[in-house]
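Researcher: Structure for this, please.
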Amino acid sequence: MAVTHSYQFTVVSHTRTLWSTLGIVFGGMALLFTGLSLKLPEVWVIVISVTAMLAGIIFMLRWIHRAESITLSADRLQSALYGEIMLADIVKTSAPWYGIPPSLKVRLRNGKSHVWGLNSSKSAIPPTATDLADLTAFILQLQLQLSSSQQTTTSIPGGGSVSKTPAPTPTSTGGVPVNKFSQWVNQPAVLISLGLLIAALSVIRACVIEARRDQFRGLRTSSEKMYQINKERVRAVLAEKLKTEGAAFLYTNDTAASLALAPQINDDNPLGISLFEHSQANMDMEAFLANPDSMPIFTYLVGGDTVVTRMRAGFTGAPDSSEQQLLVRAYDPNQHIKPNYPRNNDTTTYRVFDVCWGINIKDTSNLQYAIDRSMPGMNIMLSQIRLRKTFYFYFAGRESSGISEARFKAGIRALNALLHKNKVDTSLFIYKTFNR
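Model: Predicted structure, token format:
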């Protein structure tokens, strides 16, 4: 009658340990990011996440322990966890690197592996003395039976046989496979510790990022509010200041164009960072509000295409005290200037024809001569108004620059003479007055 051996002990499922640890980590992170995305109070989010993770750890400590019952006979073992295993199918036994002695890993011919191992004696749920004794006895007995069953007889041609005893596969100490690395590695504890560390770092990182985002949002909101407040204050101060600036005049073939008088306020955001969207504008407006009389008022042209351009004197420069100044702009959005060394053949990327200049005159100046000589090739430029429907010409003046309405109308008559000379239809031009 075959002798059988029975063993009962509680093992730690490393597969369950791995999956439950991953579940705790990612579940806690999911709760954390969900709470932050819903803009819940950070304290609530942390408390809920930590509580859920602690509950998961308590559940894991119970779930990873599984009761094992093994019956070992001469040619097989019957396991409550892994079913029936034939000893002849075992090709290798070893101590798993992540196991704590005593522990055993068997590899079968079909490639599957089965592991038996206990928890650490220093863990929250340490193994009992019975578990330790039964697992040790099972490993020793299995090693003994595997060693005896490996005594094989191999037939040779011509009759006869030879006895072959292969060297035992496992490395053992006292018959029990031991992996030195596993003596200090406690897999459940390591996974739990790593999981908690990752979760804690994730919580800290998420809270820091969210705090910074809240801070940036607060700064951006504050900057936006300050921008709106400053804009209203500038409008009020500017309305009073414009009362002393006098009228502005415009003569152009862009019938939708208009003039605006305002200080220079830079509202650009070259970095494209939303936090700095209104920073420069706020600085300029605050400087104007602090000293409104010391900041010059410039002439801005709002074209029919809603493009705002500051009309500059260009190479002409500012007039002296005895001179008056007219401002001129020539613009064609469909005419692109090819650079000397173009990077590509896409003409839409070339610079648009847009030039501004000033005409400094005196009371005794011949206006037609001054306008004609203000820009080289003036007649060619004026001819473009007739040849190109998208070519716009702007002729402007301000009382604060010494140009009275009568003087500006005289300038219009001089300009019309040049336009007629170049066969331009002056009925396309209109005259407008602003800040009257």
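Researcher: Any notable elements?
Model: The chain has two domains: 5-151+164-208, 245-434. The radius of gyration is 45 Å.
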